[in-house]
Write a structure and sequence with these properties.
The chain is an alpha/beta fold and about 250 residues long. It has a single domain, classed as 3-Layer(aba) Sandwich (Rossmann fold), CATH 3.40.50.10320. About 40% of the residues lie in helices and about 15% in strands. Strands 3-2-1-4-5-7-6 form a seven-stranded mixed sheet, sandwiched between helices. Helix 3 runs antiparallel to helix 6. InterPro entries: GlcNAc_PI_deacetylase-related, LmbE-like_dom_sf. One of its GO terms (molecular function) is hydrolase activity, acting on carbon-nitrogen (but not peptide) bonds, in linear amides. This is PIG-L family deacetylase. It comes from Sulfobacillus harzensis.
Length: about 250
């Protein structure tokens, strides 16, 4: 059974029709890179979107004149600016050290009460199972979010820290096995503006190459998955129902 069939069986709405979404990223800027156009499209349709950033972003500069503390302040300010451009209602930093020794379990235990408090209709995060993904923060964040979905609905785990809640759906960006493609042609410029708000990361000589790469990738997705007869841009996601996140080996192919 495909993910689409399972979502239909469970009467789950289209990804763009959810009333609320909680988006978890490893570092400030990852949400924009992976899903900026879609997030803007969601907020324009009335979806209440909140961000949670796992790490403080202190490893975002190799300039020895910039202290870790300065980098944290810079990146938190950039995160707020980029969030505002996309219409995100709230942006919170969980304070784990960028590149630090925190564990997947540390983050999972932090996220469970958050999911129970916000009770989102959709959770979005980076895909930790992408082939060759080698950044520990990305792997730990994606896996911690997935595990938090399992435990947020369990009345025994973290008992007393909010009422159990089952997140209906999860969408992974940066996935090698996407099954949903979103037309972001009309929100692409907002995505670029939000990316450029992260000046410490993208106001560099590499920006022309990066922006060209992002654009070419989005155009190829649009051509292959949405409409080969006209130009446009798309973002890709692996969208799964919560029930597919445990003992469901067909999820990779669904």
């Amino acid at each position: 059974m495909t993910s689409e069939q399972i979502r239909a069986l469970l009467n789950l709405p289209d990804m763009l029709d959810v009333p609320s979404a909680l988006v978890v990223e490893p570092h400030p800027d990852d949400n924009e890179v992976g899903a900026g156009g879609t997030i803007k499209k969601l907020t324009e349709r009335g979806c209440h979107v909140v961000y949670f950033t796992a790490t403080d972003g202190r490893a975002g500069s190799e300039d020895p004149s910039v202290t870790a503390e300065d980098m944290v302040r810079i990146r938190m300010a950039e995160r707020q600016q980029a969030s505002a451009i996309l219409g995100v209602e709230g942006s919170y930093n969980l304070g784990f050290e960028d590149g630090g020794s925190w564990s997947e379990r540390d983050l999972m235990l932090t996220l469970v009460p958050i999911l129970r408090q916000f009770r989102p209709a959709l959770v979005m995060t980076v895909d930790p199972w992408a082939p060759y993904e080698s950044h520990p923060d990305h792997v730990k964040t994606g896996r911690a979010v997935a595990a938090a979905l399992i435990y947020a609905k369990n009345g025994v785990v973290l008992k007393g820290q909010g009422d159990p809640y089952e997140v209906p759906q999860i969408a992974f960006y940066g996935s090698a096995w996407p099954n949903v493609f979103v037309d972001v042609t009309e929100t692409w410029e907002s995505k670029l503006a939000a990316l450029q708000a992260h000046r410490s990361q993208f106001d560099t000589p590499l920006w022309p190459m990066l922006s060209a790469y992002f654009g070419a990738e989005a155009e190829q997705l649009y051509h292959e998955q949405i409409d080969a007869n006209r130009p446009g841009k798309a973002e890709a996601f692996k969208l799964l129902a919560s029930m597919q996140m445990h003992f469901f080996p067909e999820a990779m192919r669904s």
